[in-house]
Amino acid sequence: MNNLWIFNPDNDIALGNNLSNFTPPRNARLLREAGAMLMAWIAGQGDYIVGSSSADAAWLETVTPLSGKNIRVFTPDVAERIEAARPWGWSRAIADNLSRLGIPRSIMPDDGQIQRIRELSHRHSSVIINQQLESYGIEVSMPIEVTDVATLEKLLRDGSGHVIKSPWSSSGRGVIYSDRMNHDRILDLSRGIIRNQGCILVEPKLDKLIDFAMLFDISEAGAKYIGLSVFSTLPGGNYAGNIIASENHLNSLINRYVDASVLEKTRSALEVILTELIGDNYTGVCGIDMMVYADISGGYRIAPCVELNLRNTMGYVSHRLARDIIPPELTGSMTVTYIGSNHDNSSGNAQSGKAQSCDAQSTPIFDNQNRLISGSLSLIPPNNQFDIRLSVD
């Protein structure tokens, strides 16, 4: 099928902005440009990707033996062939962007659906989902929606740590940790978020052990579980990377702390909850961020809904890499690294062969089925801003 894929990791910010003409912050824009070809790892045979560099087409040819798919860079002359638009996430901004590329609005969600996607992407959805999970007898860590600073001050007085979140934010943006910031500064920032977005969400700071997510496919048939994602974040909340491994291995990491029945019960409940909550407003990948944490008694629990991501996720990319690119018996990692403008790699030229974009100290080695069995492989063309890399342990 002639799908069109476009990488817009700034989409959560665009949802908060809610304008058709939206200019992402600089780092988000740089990641969008550098990471455009990341979509090659989830696109299908014969699909197109919106590129950002003249080197993209040549790079796609070098990874064809690994992906096993003939994927092409989009050009305006093929706009009439596109049957479905598949951005990283939907917002008014990306719909307008695609329209300017010549993609008809008839193959995109309509204005009402995009507005509903925006509403569902509000962190209030985590409150709704947690309430529903609680009705299934699942223990939750409930966020509190706060619309005034006076209420926030009361919550902060208990002396325990809190995490304060804006309704729409991306990869650590709009997240405040009460134990890392001056009290007055917390109130000033929270006041601004409430003024601009209507509220804040306040959660207890948990003693986190593992960040993970459950991935679902949302279609006319409802929400169907895809698999797990186990990931890591930097201290400020920014995404750092994923473990690339089989579902059994990822389950084993979590089951060290909590019984497998807890995961199974949560998965089954979420399929029902997401089907009812999302309805026919969205089709595609959905991720529910979770965590394993230690409670005050020294036991271990799951926070079963930290956040709803109604879009593609790095976890889904990782799921596909584990399925398609490395052998099932091996484990690896996907990392996102900011290089910065001083990195001496300004030419942007694609290298040839399986060793393109690889670290000289970790040359990728493949088996006879073109699966990565050792070393590392860059998942995007070389550039001087970001590296997104798959490595086998």
The global form is: globular
Q: Give the beta-strand count.
A: 17
How much of the sequence lies in strands comes to 25-35%
Distance between the termini: 35 Å
Provide a count of the helices: 11
Helix content: 25-40%
- The oligomeric state is single chain
Structural category: alpha+beta
Task: Report on the biggest sheet.
Answer: 9 strands, antiparallel
Order of adjacent strands in the largest pleated sheet: 13-12-9-10-11-14-17-16-15
Order of helices and strands: EHHEHEEHHHEHEEHEEEEHHEEHEEEE
Structure summary:
This protein is an alpha+beta fold and 393 residues long.
Tell me what the structure shows.
- The protein starts with a strand and ends with a strand.
- It is of the alpha+beta class and about 400 residues long.
- The protein has a 9-stranded antiparallel β-sheet with strand order 13-12-9-10-11-14-17-16-15, with helices on both faces. Strands 3-2-1-4 form a 4-stranded parallel β-sheet, covered by helices on one side. Strands 5-8-6-7 form a 4-stranded antiparallel β-sheet.
- The chain is built from 11 helices and 17 strands.
- The longest helix is centred in the last third of the chain and has 19 residues, at about 260-280.
